Amino acid sequence: MRASVPPIIPPRELKPGARVLVTGGAGFIGANLVRILLRQSYRVRVLDNFTAGQRQYLSGLDIEIITGDICDREAIASAIRGCDAVVHLAARTSVIDSVADPIANFETNVSGTLLLLQASVASGIERFIFASSNAAVGDQALPMDELSVPRPLSPYGASKLAGEAYCHSFFRSYGLRTVILRFANVYGPWSWHSENVISRFIRRMLNDEPITIYGDGKQTRDFIFVTDVVQAIVLALDYPFGGEVFQIGTGRETTLLELIQLLGEISGRAPRLHWMPQPAGEIRRNYTSFAKAQQVLGFVPRVHLREGLARTYEWFTEWMRRQRT
């Protein structure tokens, strides 16, 4: 006997004034997202354990903050109560750390996501946006798109792919309107604490330290400015259906050496380089087709790399100055 599939309930518009739970809301993407949600008249609740997120990123904002972990059932139940939608950003994001400790990566990224999905169904959540990554797809023919067969290279990528699978299954099994967004390499303001490559490079430049390059520096990434990623999240909140995955990137490929050259031109500094062997689990080349997101969601990246780097470098400089005064 085949398992029954819950009936598809006609979609309901998520109106301004709805309450959105942002897990990991004190992190880099979260700190940018909550500001845009507030401007669009959403009510915002943040769940963060502050192991990576920074409480000061949220200072002065009219939001609810719950200190707790996505692996804690009680914290999840408290955070999700009364919400209309969830944007799930909280995760362990380091590829290198996932190789060193895949169990810890699994517990947060897979078990935590499953617990949050389960609580969402129990609470009648309208929409669930899952922040995934190109790491879930792995090394592919380029440009990467939604039809690429996933072959993750790292435990981090595998954990994101598992999270995607649970999101799909919860849409089909329980009718939870899940939308998966696979982000390219995100950068921008509110990322002083972040270990993404651009944040690391700028911090080391400002501290007059050498930039570590793994391998030959010719590996490529699709760098997308954080406001473009936030645009995609907001569009996904407005999307009335579920069970979809969207690649979110710029469609442009940039080597790390090209990135360093741009940072040198923007900063007026001559970056010093420290070369290290290429670690396991890293993708060699990567850039993303956003054609489906454009067609279905209306997503179009707006910020060119040079402009985004200049805005990011300016934010880092000002943040560093404020922390020292």
Give a short synopsis of this structure.
By secondary structure, the chain is of the alpha/beta class. 40% of the residues lie in helices and 17% in strands.
Question: Uncertain regions: pLDDT < 50 for 5+ in a row?
Answer: 1-10
- The CATH superfamily of the largest domain bears the name NAD(P)-binding Rossmann-like Domain
> In order across it, which strands form the biggest sheet?
3-2-1-4-5-6-11
- Helical proportion? 40-55%
How many angstroms separate the termini? 69 Å
H-E order: EHEEHEHHEHEEHEEEHEEHEHH
Oligomer: single chain
CATH fold annotation of the largest domain = Rossmann fold
Structural class: alpha/beta
Integer count of domains: 2
Using only C-alpha atoms, the radius of gyration works out to: 19 Å
User: Average pLDDT across residues?
Assistant: 94
Largest sheet: 7 strands, parallel
Per CATH, the class of the largest domain reads: Alpha Beta
Give the beta-strand count: 13
Shape: globular
CATH architecture title of the largest domain: 3-Layer(aba) Sandwich
Beta-strand residue percentage: 15-25%
Please count the helical segments: 10
